[in-house]
Amino acid sequence: MERGLLDFFALGVLIMIGITVLYAVIYIHDIPYEIAKKRNHPHQDAIHTAGWVSLFLMHTIWPFLWIWATLYKPGVGWGVGAAKVEGAQGTSEDQNNEIRELQKRVALLEAQISKQTEEA
């Protein structure tokens, strides 16, 4: 059997495609770790390790790693604490007034309930 130049060229192309796919998979699996590193995420080592584990799990956990890496924001943290309202003037006074009104309503409702229990 004669092997022509095109056979070797095709073999070279197949090898190059295989190497490219391998590097693409490794690059893609590392995206959540790069996001975590950029945001100074406190769990970046765990995200990196889980990224390598996701290679063996056919990237089934990769979307969760992406979410995990993007949840943490520098300067804000996880974003589950008290929200800061910037530029709002007088919000504490409005809140105090609202609290007083609610306390009055609760006192009124308690009085009505005690009145009804006395009648019954």
Task: Tell me what the structure shows.
The chain has 120 residues and is mainly α. The chain is built from 5 helices and no strands. It has helices at residues 5-29, 31-38, 44-56, 62-71, 91-119. It is rod-shaped and about 110 Å long.
What are its keywords?
single chain; 120 residues; 71% helix; mainly alpha
- Overall mean confidence score, pLDDT: 87
Q: Could you tell me the strand content as a percent range?
A: under 5%
Number of strands: 0
| Main beta-sheet annotation | none
Shape: rod-shaped
Describe this structure in a few short sentences.
The chain has 120 residues and is an all-alpha fold.
SSE topology sketch:
Blueprint: H1 5-29, H2 31-38, H3 44-56, H4 62-71, H5 91-119
Helix pairs in contact: 2-3, 2-4, 3-4
